[in-house]
Amino acid sequence: MRDFLYDRLYIFYSAVFLLNIIHTFTENDTLYFVIGVLSILMILLAFPRASRVFRVLGTVLLTAGGFFFLSGSLSLGDIPGLFAGNVGLLLLLSVLPWMNSAVKAGRYNKLLKGLLQSGTGTLGQLYGRSEATMVSLAAFLNLSSATISQDLLKEQLGRFSPDVRNSFVSMATLRGYSLALLWSPLEILLATSIFITGADYLQVLPWMLLISLAGFFLDTLAGRRKFGNYELQKETKQKNSYGRGKLKGFILALVLFLSTVVFLANVINFEFLFSVTIAIVPFAFLWSTILKRRKSFWLIGWSAWKRHTNHLDNFIVLLLSLSVLTETLNASPYLELLQQPVIAYSDSPVVIMIIIQLTFLLMTLAGVHPLATMGIFGGISGLLMEALPPVTLAVLLSSSAIATVPSAPYGLIVTITSVNFHMNPYRIVWKNLPFTIICGSIGTAVALLTMIVH
């Protein structure tokens, strides 16, 4: 009976998400209270099924939230609303598989294989191609781009020692993946930073692309230098036979999706997070229809969506408990203590930027998900925006958070790589830590540049 109910949690979650969409248009206080009550039920259902790391993190966040609640002026009637703040983020996470399903239905995952199998002479050259491929395609393929490329690279690099192969894969794929996340509208960390700051995605996008390009250029040079002396066998020098037309179609679809999101956010005046969320399913459906893959899209998408939504437990625990912490912190007198460092350095934005970058890095290395750190800064976003403009803060928060992705010991991409190649996750973290520091520093420098330009 228990398994029967858990297998159909997607129905309950979808009902809550639907109510949240209705509330976005109506802004009804009673409806928001109902969403809060249902959110409490969601976290109660998800908590036993969440992984140990997220249960511990959720407990810490809820305990801190409880402390701030008791110290503030909130009443018992306010409690349900404390849990409802991040339901929109959960909705975005829920619909992401539909875009990935359109990619699979259109067989664009084969495009990744074709690009990686194109002729290269050395591992250094393959490093640049592997990272470029990840940056280009991970925006839509997301985690599947990493798993596909890692499986292929494992086969291509079979004759090299495990140390060389593992170093190559853990660097090229994880770093390329994070460089793609910097500008992808489907990336939850970027969407959250824009949600917190209220910045315009269209204004943030060029700066994020600049960070991505700078990071790619520097890391490609480092990869060529590190792996340039390793020759590939002739049989691995294959021509890309899958067709440039497929790549052009993929890039066109990406541009159209970005244009759709910008239209909804800037013309219709929806919030960026909501614009991305409501655009995904209709766009993915139309895309698969144009490709004449509509049946495959529904077959792949329906099962993937149900499975994914049924197992949102970790994110439910994290985001809903984070909502409680953020809301109670804003109503607590202890907020002033957290504000003191920002006030002290309000005339030194560079110091504030460095503090934010280091906080993301240290919290991630300690096992705290960057979304949780993002939420903490979200609690004092009003004060931060007195010292930093919204675009600057959005660039800083998102780049600092995403730069830690290859170095997050309990992150999903690191865990997948660790399992695939039987590597200690902390060994992966150690190899990617220099990249995280450099990429985060580039983000901080670009954030500073946005202040000078604007």
TrEMBL record:
Coiled-coil ranges (or none)? none
- Keyword Hydrolase found: no
Q: Which UniProt keywords apply?
A: Membrane, Transmembrane, Transmembrane helix
Q: Membrane-spanning regions, if any? A: 9-25, 31-47, 54-76, 82-103, 177-198, 204-222, 247-266, 272-291, 312-331, 351-384, 391-413, 433-453
Task: Identify the domain of life.
Answer: Bacteria
This protein is called Citrate transporter-like domain-containing protein
- To which species is this protein native? Salimicrobium jeotgali
